[in-house]
């Protein structure tokens, strides 16, 4: 996973949290972020 991909995911997450009260999409984004962080930590 490239740094650019990481940036995009984090950007989408932070803007999404700000704009969203929809718990479903927020949950999906937080799962993506968790997955991303766990991958980064393992490397």
Topology overview:
Elements (H helix, E strand, L loop, with lengths): L2 H17 L3 H20 L1
Helix pairs in contact: 1-2
Note down, in words, how this protein is organized.
The protein is mainly α and 43 residues long. The protein has one domain (3-42). It is 86% helix and 0% strand. It has two helices and no strands. The protein has helices at residues 3-19, 23-42. Helix 1 runs antiparallel to helix 2. The chain is flat and about 35 Å long. The chain starts with a helix and ends with a helix. The model has no long low-confidence stretch (mean pLDDT 76).
**Tell me, what's the shape?**
flat
| Run of helices and strands | HH
Proportion in β-strands: under 5%
Number of self-contained structural domains: 1
Average pLDDT metric = 76
- Quaternary state of this entry equals single chain
Segments where pLDDT lies below 50 for 5+ residues?
A: none
Structure classification: mainly alpha
Distance between the termini: 10 Å
Total beta strand runs: 0
Helix content: over 70%
**Number of H/I helices:** 2
Radius of gyration: 11 Å
Largest sheet: none
